[in-house]
Amino acid sequence: MARRNHTTDLGSIACDDLTDLGAGKEGWLVENPNLLTALDTHSIALANRSTVLVIEFSDGADPSGASRVKIRPTLSPIEAESISAIEWLVFDDVRVLAIGTSCGSQIVNTGRIIKLRVRGTKRDLTQDTSSEEICAVMPGVIARFDGSDIQSMLQRWFQESHTQFWDHKRDPDDSESSFGRLPYQLWNVNKYGSCADAAVTGIMPPPLMEVQLFWFLNSAAFIVGQSSQRYFCAITIGDDAVISAFRLSEDRSRSLVGAILSKVVPATFSTIASFSKMIWRSEQKSPKKPEAKPQSFARASPLTCFKDHPRKGEKLTLSPSGTLAAITDSLGRILLLDTQALVVVRLWKGYREASCLFMEMLVNKDKASSSSSYYEHVKSDYCLCLAIHAPRKGIIEVWQMRTGPRLLTIPCSKGSKILQPTYRFGSSSGTASSYIPLELFVLNGDSGQLSVVNRPLN
């Protein structure tokens, strides 16, 4: 009986430039903790502590003719700064590579950037709201950037760069003011210890007490409007607490009274200042560029915490909708967490050093076979699955969510790594006529071969 092949080869990334990253030694791709990877459609970025190598690939093409670009970002030798995270940011007309360093950002936070997370949800029958964001995870800190703000900044940057190319007299120091400061939210989530990884899972409802208090104030004829701020749910993992959950507020005030005063006091002060200008004429001063200062933390209210010494949380991955999270720990277990109910709904044991990624498999194949005409698969034809790469077992297992059976067991060569393309901002993949499922890719570091797991089960 012929052996089934559940993967399709896409091409090879093998090239001489990979030797600078350690290629040539068995297991170089997975044994170096400082080696980072980020996958996009037909391109992959690999980085060590100081260099990023971008390799373009195509199906069946000769790897020797592939386009390659080396990036050496400016790093501080005094601070021993190094590259600590990379991720693609892909918009409709712009594609850039985001690089995080061990020194963080002087404006946002100076902590080491552990992870750059890009995710988004589209409004559909299962999602009431849409959200696209980039999150920078640092020890005990989460910074969130809205995808639309990032896209607007990049468009202004490209336009400004084109203008400066023709206008050499323009002061380069004015570029920051022309782009505008990028808005973001910042939260401190180290109540239960420094986190090893974290993620914003999505938008959540406001606290019940706040809703009741707003109702009381409105019924008492106070001039207070309904709160328009959003709340997010964040999941963190770490050494002290395996899993922690927080409610993140956009408001940096500490109480409802503070929120009201923050609206009333500035308006009162503005009125007094305007009146004083009518009496005293202030001396005209030369405009001075204000210095950028770090932003204060917004509210992060703890929701729950799970401690089980000596177990430690190691890796965290989110489902596309953010409603499920797969967490690996130091005892070889994998926990499937419902991020809305904050309950562990499934547990796997015996998977030390495992890596997990969510993917989608084709289950409704009968529709295509029964139809004589061409059938284009829609989102409902696919089921959400969790791919578990167990390097000690040399296999990749695919389990149906949430409590379904194991659908596939794929042999995996030693030194391989599972990857997934980054989320594409503004993508229309959510439409029924052009749905693109979430796929799983396997990179064999020793051979350089890149393959994709087949969507159908056979």
From TrEMBL:
<dbReference type="InterPro" id="IPR026059">
    <property type="entry name" value="Rab3GAP2"/>
</dbReference>
<feature type="domain" description="Rab3-GAP regulatory subunit N-terminal">
    <location>
        <begin position="28"/>
        <end position="419"/>
    </location>
</feature>
<dbReference type="InterPro" id="IPR032839">
    <property type="entry name" value="RAB3GAP_N"/>
</dbReference>
<dbReference type="Pfam" id="PF14655">
    <property type="entry name" value="RAB3GAP2_N"/>
</dbReference>
<protein>
    <recommendedName>
        <fullName>Rab3-GAP regulatory subunit N-terminal domain-containing protein</fullName>
    </recommendedName>
</protein>
